[in-house]
Design a protein that fits this description.
This protein has ten helices and twelve strands. The chain is 34% helix and 16% strand. It is an alpha/beta fold. A three-stranded parallel sheet has the order 1-2-3, covered by helices on one side. It has a three-stranded antiparallel sheet with strand order 4-7-10. The longest helix is centred in the N-terminal third of the chain and has 16 residues.
Length: 315
């Protein structure tokens, strides 16, 4: 993709073959868990003779830290992980998200929602439900039949099947095997445009994966739960559905996953090859450790590709 293509909203023409991507949010520097996901996506692309793209997912502007995008790109470069096309920033892609939302609305798949978090909690309590999943409440569908005098705050996507029954999403994960979720009961109608006017991750990632021609999504297991929502969106928008592989999480000493939200330490790149070796071990790849000191990180990366290809295919 050239610079002009990266700045407009026309689909990128992608030839046959594999296209993968790594898509970090610039809310903090990469940590050890981030490198595991980045390395896995890079290895999978190289094992399949494909292309590897980088996308900065900065649609949540208030959470983004100025300069962190460039820091992340430098961290990846220090580890020898270079994109095969110009980097794309989601903040340049808002017109494409608006077009997708309009398409979904015209087909009757979306509706405005006037609920606050307090409204949702009260509605769930009245129904005898107070559960949360991953810190989010399951939306009870309060505004499906109308706003009831409330001003519109957000836009939601219906999560039921075309006949009004529960929508079950099944897919195959290349690491985790067969997966299935009752999207209606386990997630509910989810937000595409937030009350603050920002675009939701689910819509942005689906639109951009299709635009960039992504065939394979390789990412951490903490994002596996997003897959049913994204496949539902892809179906409604008439977009191709990539294959998925979700890697094991790197856990902190307290047993919780490393994340920027819980203050995970920035990746220590005093010795980039050591950081890569640790990430490789987390992915079950020990072949590249037969010589602990390769001349360059590029040599280490090349040595790691056959081990990944043996486990997850090539060609």
């Amino acid at each position: 993709m050239d610079e002009a293509a990266a700045s407009d909203h026309r689909p990128v023409t992608a030839g046959p073959g594999y296209i993968g991507r790594f898509a970090p949010s610039p809310t903090g520097p990469l940590h050890a868990g981030s490198l595991v996901a980045a390395l896995a996506s890079w290895l999978d692309a190289r094992a399949h003779g494909g292309r590897w793209l980088l996308r900065i997912e900065d649609v949540d502007g208030p959470r983004c830290i100025p300069g962190t995008d460039r820091l992340i790109l430098q961290q990846l470069a220090d580890c020898g992980l270079h994109a095969d096309a110009p980097v794309v920033w989601q903040s340049t892609r808002e017109a494409a998200y608006a077009q997708a939302l309009a398409q979904l609305g015209a087909a009757g798949h979306t509706y405005p929602c006037g609920c606050t978090r307090k409204d949702i909690a009260q509605a769930l309590a009245a129904q005898g439900h107070g559960r949360e999943r991953f810190g989010e409440t399951v939306y009870p569908g309060t505004c499906r039949a109308g706003l009831h005098g409330k001003p519109a705050r957000a836009w939601r996507l219906r999560s039921d099947d075309s006949d009004g029954s529960d929508l079950h999403i099944a897919w195959h994960d290349r690491w985790r095997g067969p997966q299935r979720q009752n999207l209606t009961q386990e997630v509910g109608d989810f937000v595409l445009r937030r009350a603050d006017g920002l675009w939701a991750y689910q819509l942005a990632v689906v639109v951009d994966d299709a635009w960039q021609g992504v065939t394979d999504v390789v990412r951490g297991a903490d994002l596996a739960d997003n897959t049913p929502r994204q496949r539902h969106l892809q179906t409604l928008l008439g977009l191709p559905q990539p294959r998925h592989l979700h890697t094991p999480l790197v856990l902190a000493a307290d047993g919780h996953k490393l994340s920027k939200q819980n203050g995970a330490a920035a990746l220590d790149l005093a010795d980039p090859q050591a950081a890569l070796r640790a990430a490789g071990r987390a992915l079950g790849l020990d072949a590249a450790d037969q010589r602990r000191d390769w001349p360059t990180v590029d040599d280490w990366l090349r040595a790691a590709v056959p081990g990944w290809a043996a486990r997850f295919g090539s060609g």
